[in-house]
Write a structure and sequence with these properties.
Blueprint lengths: L8 E6 L11 E6 L5 E6 L7 H9 L7 E6 L7 H21 L13 E6 L8 H13 L6 H7 L8 E7 L2 E8 L12 E6 L5 H14 L15 E6 L9 H21 L7 E9 L2 H12 L2 H8 L5 H8 L12 E4 L2 E5 L2 E2 L12 E7 L5 E8 L3 H8 L4
Parallel strand pairs: 4-5, 8-9, 10-14
Antiparallel strand pairs: 1-2, 2-4, 3-9, 6-7, 7-8, 10-15, 11-12, 11-14, 12-13
C-alpha cells in the first residue's frame, strides 16, 4: 500500500487531464495525524522549480498535513507565474480538504501543503485542469489509495515504485518516481515517505538526510541533475509508538534503499544495473568521488552494454579524480574476476561472465580502509531515443 501502509494516511491518484494521453497525473497524500511532523530534502541544482522553492519554504516549520504531486509538467523555469501557480495549488488543496472535513489535525492551510511537479521543463501547468482535479482527488482519498497515487506520479517510468518496512507496532512506507536524469543532488525523483511512528521533525530530518546520503544520493544513472528533486518524510504518530532513533533511522534507510534500487532498475533504456563498490579508499569522500567517476564514464557504460569487461576504462575514470591512490597499486574486479592487479593485467578477462542483468565492479584503491557503493546503468540506444524524443 506504499504511502498508506502507515496508519493515519490517505492517498489518491487520478487523471486530471494534465497529460495529453489521458494517463493518471495528479496525486495527493494526506496526513490525518495526530502528529503532522515532516522533513524534506531537495535538489542541489541552482536552477530550482517553483514547487521546490515553495516546499523548501513551507517545510521550515517542520510541519506538513498534505503533499500534492503532479506529473505531465515540471513547472520549472516558468517565472513568477509558475510560483503563483504552485501557491494556488497549495491553497486549493487546503480549501478542498477543509471543505471535505479532513481537518483532524486542526485544519489545513496552504503553508502546510508541499507541492511537487515532474515532467517537461519550461511549460506552464494547465491550471484550468489541475485545480478542478484537486477537488476530484480529494474526493477519492482512501487508506488504500497509495498505489493509485504512485501510478499518478509516473513520467517515463515503466512501472510505479513503492516500498514498505514494518517494525514492532509501526511502519515506514514510500512511493517514488524516476527513470531519467538520475544523478545526485538527489537523483531525479519525487519521493514521499510516511510513518506512523511518533517522531518529531528534528529526528525526521536527521534520519532522512542520513538515509538519502547513502541511498538516493548514490544513484547515478546518467550524471544529469534535475530541477525538481524532492524527498519528503511525514509522521502521523498514529501508532503511538516512539521508537529509538537508530531503529527508526534504519527503517527509513531501508525504504530509501529499496526505492533507489527500483529507480536504477527502471532507468530509461537500461539493460544492465551496475554496482560499483570502491574499497580501501583513504576517505569515504574519496570512495564516493571515484565511484561516481566510474559511474559517469560513458565509454565504460557502452562497454558494459556490449558485455565487454573493459577494465582499462575503469582505471581511466579513477585517474580523473583527486582521490588518494598510486596507479601501480590499483586493482579492479568485474563480476568477481580480478582483471586488473597492481595497475596492470590481472586474471583472464575471458573468465568474466556478463550475461546477467547485474554487473559488479570492484575498484580497490589500496589507500586506506573506507568504502562506498554507487549504482549506475549501461548506456543504450534506447536511452538516446527516449531522451531525444522526450519533448515530442
Amino acid at each position: 500500500m506504499s504511502v498508506t501502509a502507515a496508519q493515519g494516511f490517505t492517498a489518491a491518484g487520478i487523471a486530471a487531464g494534465i497529460k495529453e494521453n489521458g494517463n493518471p497525473d495528479l496525486a495527493l497524500v494526506v496526513n490525518h495525524g495526530p502528529r503532522s511532523a515532516a522533513a524534506g530534502v531537495f535538489t542541489s541544482n541552482r536552477v530550482k522549480a517553483a514547487p521546490v522553492l515553495w516546499s523548501e519554504q513551507v517545510l521550515k516549520s517542520g510541519e506538513l498535513t498534505a503533499v500534492v504531486l503532479n506529473s505531465g509538467g515540471a513547472n520549472a523555469c516558468t517565472g513568477p507565474q509558475g510560483f503563483q501557480d504552485t501557491h494556488a495549488t497549495a491553497e486549493k488543496v487546503a480549501e478542498s480538504l477543509n471543505s471535505a472535513g479532513h481537518d483532524e489535525t486542526g485544519g489545513h492551510g496552504a503553508g502546510t501543503v508541499a507541492v511537487c511537479s515532474t515532467g517537461l521543463i519550461g511549460l506552464l501547468l494547465p491550471m484550468d485542469k489541475l485545480l478542478p482535479g484537486v477537488d476530484e482527488v480529494v474526493a477519492q482519498l482512501s487508506p488504500h489509495g497509495g498505489e493509485k497515487a504512485a501510478i499518478a506520479i509516473k513520467t517515463t517510468d515503466t512501472v510505479h515504485k513503492t516500498s514498505v518496512v514494518s517494525r514492532e507496532g509501526w511502519t515506514v512506507g514510500g512511493m517514488a518516481k524516476g527513470a531519467g536524469m538520475l544523478a545526485p543532488g538527489l537523483a531525479t525523483m519525487l519521493v514521499v515517505l510516511t510513518t506512523d511512528a511518533d517522531v518529531d521533525s528534528d529526528a525526521l530530518d536527521k534520519a532522512l538526510r542520513a538515509a538519502t546520503k547513502v541511498t538516493f544520493d548514490r544513484v547515478d544513472s546518467d550524471g544529469c541533475m534535475s530541477t525538481n528533486d524532492t524527498v519528503v518524510l511525514l509522521a502521523s504518530g498514529a501508532s503511538e509508538v516512539a521508537p529509538e532513533y537508530e531503529v527508526f533511522a534504519e527503517a527509513v534507510r531501508a525504504v530509501c534503499d529499496d526505492l533507489g534500487q527500483q529507480l536504477i532498475r527502471d532507468a530509461e533504456g537500461a539493460s544492465k544495473d551496475i554496482r560499483i563498490e570502491v574499497v580501501n579508499a583513504a576517505t569515504e569522500d574519496d570512495a564516493v568521488e571515484v565511484g561516481r567517476s566510474i559511474a559517469r564514464n560513458n565509454l565504460l557504460k557502452c562497454a558494459i552494454h556490449g558485455e565487454d569487461p573493459n577494465w582499462g576504462r575503469v582505471l581511466s575514470a579513477i585517474g580523473t579524480t583527486s582521490a588518494a591512490f598510486e596507479p601501480d597499486r590499483l586493482n579492479v574486479a568485474i563480476n568477481g574476476v580480478w582483471v586488473c592487479k597492481n595497475g596492470s593485467v590481472g586474471e583472464d578477462r575471458e573468465l568474466v561472465d556478463m550475461r546477467y542483468r547485474e554487473v559488479k565492479i570492484t575498484a580497490d584503491l589500496a589507500a586506506g580502509s573506507e568504502s562506498a557503493v554507487i549504482w549506475a546503468n549501461d548506456l543504450t540506444a534506447d536511452y538516446v531515443h527516449e531522451n531525444s524524443a522526450y519533448s515530442s
